[in-house]
Amino acid sequence: MNSIAIVGAGLGGLACARVLQLHGLDVTVFEQEPSADARPQGGTLDMHGDTGQVALRTAKLLDEFRALARPEGQQMRALDPRTAEVVIDETPEGDFRPEIDRGQLRGILLDSLAPGTVRWGRAVADVAGARLTFADGASHDFDLVVGADGAWSRVRRALTGVRPGYSGVTFVEFGLDDADRRHPELAARTGQGTMMTKVGGKALVAQRTSSGHIRCYATFYAPEDWAAGLDFADAAAVRAHLLERYAGWHPDVLAYVRDHDGGFTHRPLYVLPVPHAWTTTPGLTLLGDAAHLMPPLGVGANLAMLDGTELATALATAPSVEEAVRAYEAGMLPRSIETAKACASGLHDLLSDDLGSMAA
To answer: Which residues hold NADPH (predicted)?
Structure first.
């Protein structure tokens, strides 16, 4: 085996690279962003015992994960949006799904790789079989190109040509910095994990991170062009729009929107069709969101890392690249299809009026 290229330095691609290097295989990760800290890495993730933690164990990074993980982050609260009353407050025993900041987890994976494994600022302009052409015009051939390049994957475009479609649901993200000191009432209401509340096709989610930051998501059904004419650079206008959209909710719940720090980010939810599958193709495969983009209900990062470590293990043990990819896809595709079906149902549960469904 000559060399493997992974396009995208997200969690799945990095986990794949880590396990390949544990087996002594030649791998390079190409990432279009200029550096590891080019942008914030998002909020908190729950690593599941039967997926994400399995991947971390395979990558021999479980101890590093446990040193930073927050079992208390498994706490789940549900509030009545009209009264702000806590109607569910549960913290599972054990650490089946402890939380960790996405940035911390990515840091663990990056630190585990040999220096120079990730080539930053290397945007892929074209994929033709196992040949990558970069934005600077340079081209290189590999034994295998792995598309770990997310929702709008360029590698997927070469393999299946399928593009994500709008789910009918949108997120508006915002946050509360230094919440324990600056917003103690909201910090107390959130608890140590996740607070959720919903009614009438609208939800509000707040998640605590390790830094005392609370990341919030206003979630609702809306047409794809719902924000036309709304300038997201104008925080006051977006805040006013959300407060009007959530009119009738209790003031203590609306305080998440009213009192937050800084701006808002529009995150419409796109998903791949179910099923999304393909015939094994020499020189190409996909993992993570590139393979099975689905609603963000706590499984995407776990599956991406499991995909990456299973692919790497297959490449290290199978007689040929094609046999390894075939074996990997034979397990990954059915699993992702079933999970995507469950997530599609779960997205609608999230926006139902059943408060009990939030603790499931």
So the answer is: 39
